[in-house]
Model the fold of this input.
Amino acid sequence: MDYSSNESRRTGVAKYFIETPRKPDKKIWILMTGVSLLLIHKGYGQANEGGTLFIIAGWGGLCWVGAKLYQIARQYRLDFNEAEPKATDMDMDAWLVDGYAMILGMAKKRLGLEEDDISANPLRIDGPDLQSHIAPGRDRVLRFDRHDILLLFLTKHHVATYRCTFDLRSGKILAEDTKEILYRNITTVETGRSGDVFVYGIKKIPIKGVRNLAIYTAHGKVISINYFLDREIQDDNTITPASDAEYTIMALRRRIIESRGG
Done:
């Protein structure tokens, strides 16, 4: 399947991260229209120069209000069409699952792995890329368009990793790399609060529960990736997406201990 050819996904994902504008408030314009009409009415009730001025002011006000309403309505339509129709939450999740399947096939190909080489299904960490757009869906779950994905294949003696930047909008893998690390060469598997800040929405609200995984060998840090804690509740009651990252890290640590006879 060509994951980069789906135009409905391309536009749907793009619009998913653009906030839909609110309808313009008409109260002030109704009030100004009423004032203009009142001036006109008052002007026609006075057979003098002052009445003429009221009429001119009233019609001038109506023309100005009409022009402003046209501009506001036109800008609203432009902004609305830029943000709608969005992809649904189910669409976003389904396209991501399709992407995972493509990435898994690519990982096995790049690493040259056969099923017999792998002792279990690959473990996955999926975090936001630093250039990600992030927004809550109708279900209040935060989603992002650029995924920093790490797959870990646990073999008998080493962990084979495939890492890529996956753009959900285009369906393309933008960057990728592979590593094969012997368990005995891994000196530290470290987790902690991420030093990167991720925000969402027009108000740029910082996301809580952003963690970082770092894997070290004797030569230094070989892998560093951000991820969200599983369904972490934010200040406005949005939540981070479901994540197996903590389980993945525990499984990796367990395998390292087992490889050393622990």
About this structure: Residues 21-83 form one domain. The first helix runs from residue 7 to 16. The mean pLDDT is 91.
